[in-house]
Every structure is written in C-alpha cells, then in structure tokens.
C-alpha cells in the first residue's frame, strides 16, 4: 500500500515537469505563481480546469510557509465568475509531495483583484495571456533551487535557535 501511495504521489507531481508553465506577474512580493498553460481544459460549458504552482518567497533566517512549493488543481467557471480548489499537493524541503485533503470543493464567487480574479482573466480571456504571464523556462531547475533554498533556510533557522 505504501508503494502504491508513493507511486501515486510521484505520478501526480510529474506533470509539473512536462508542461508549459507560465510565470505570472501576480503579487511577486509573496512568491512566484505559475499557470500550466497546457493543462487548461474545458470540462463542461464555460468551466475550465487547470494546474497552478506557487513557490513562496524564501527569506534567509525567517520562518517560511512550511513548504517549498504548492501545486493546485483549480476549477473556474468563466460565465459565473466562480472558482474552486479541486486538488492540493504540497512539496516539502525534501521535495516529497504531500496531498492535502480538500474538504470544500464548492464553487465560490471570485473577489475582484484577488488571485482567483487574476487566474480567471488568464484562463477565461486567452487574448490577455501575454499580458498576464510569460514562459517560465526551466521550471525543473527553478523547483530544484526552491527546494534547496527552503531546506537551507530551515537549517539556518535551526542553527539560529541553537538546535
């Protein structure tokens, strides 16, 4: 059973490396938000599903978010301007994936000027994609570096605390 779960987690993380990740310009002070352009699919009418990836900013010597990066499968209804989180996977300082249970998958109204509003514009208005994001380049190297920085920062914090 453990082998099966590990394999499932490994497979779920593989699309992050083989996709067309777009780096967005959304709230770069918090970290980097990416959208997998290739994953945007119409599932029913005006409803789109797609993957995002968020890598929080790592500040040396400061407590972080508790993870290196986060992948999320999201759903947006373009017509009703609603969104939902469908699946959530956090990667720790060892790049191990941890699936988080999503208890509430109900569609919610999208607040103006929010992250979901930004994603709605990207997913539902394809003509705006060039203004909202740019090709991310070597995402694999970026994620490796993010994991490395997260791990190094945790070690720095432990040394600072005398542990």
Short synopsis of the structure:
The protein is α+β, with helices and mostly antiparallel strands. It is 29% helix and 32% strand. It has a single domain, classed as Lipocalin, CATH 2.40.128.
The tally of beta strands, per DSSP, is 9
Can you tell me the CATH class?
Mainly Beta
Structural category: alpha+beta
Mean pLDDT: 87
Estimated helix fraction: 25-40%
Strand content: 25-35%
Query: How would you describe the shape?
Result: elongated
Poorly predicted runs are: 1-16
What is the CA–CA distance across the termini?
35 Å
Total discrete domains: 1
State the CATH superfamily name: Surface-adhesin protein E
Radius of gyration: 17 Å
> What is the third-level CATH name, the topology?
Lipocalin
The main sheet comes to: 9 strands, antiparallel
* Number of contiguous helices: 4
Please render the helix and strand layout as text.
Elements (H helix, E strand, L loop, with lengths): L1 H12 L7 E4 L6 E6 L4 E4 L2 E10 L12 E9 L4 E10 L5 E4 L7 E2 L5 H10 L4 H4 E3 L3 H22 L3
Q: What does this molecule look like?
A:
This protein is an alpha+beta fold and 163 residues long. It has a single domain, classed as Beta Barrel (Lipocalin), CATH 2.40.128. It contains four helices and nine strands. Strands 1, 2, 3, 4, 5, 6, 7, 8 and 9 form a nine-stranded antiparallel β-sheet that branches.
């Amino acid at each position: 059973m453990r082998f099966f779960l590990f394999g499932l987690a490994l497979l779920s993380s593989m699309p992050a490396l083989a996709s067309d990740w777009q780096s967005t310009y959304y709230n770069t002070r918090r970290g980097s938000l990416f959208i997998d352009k290739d994953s945007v699919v119409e599932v029913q009418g005006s409803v789109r599903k797609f993957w995002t990836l968020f890598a929080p900013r790592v500040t040396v010597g400061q407590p972080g978010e508790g993870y290196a990066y986060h992948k999320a499968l999201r759903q947006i209804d373009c017509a009703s301007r609603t969104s939902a989180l469908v699946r959530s996977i956090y990667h720790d300082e060892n790049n191990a994936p941890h699936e988080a249970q999503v208890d509430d998958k109900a569609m919610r109204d999208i607040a103006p000027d929010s992250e979901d509003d930004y994603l709605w514009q990207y997913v539902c208005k394809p003509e705006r994609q060039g203004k909202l994001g740019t090709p991310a380049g070597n995402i694999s190297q970026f994620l490796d570096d993010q994991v490395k920085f997260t791990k190094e920062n945790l070690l720095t914090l432990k040394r600072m605390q005398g542990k």
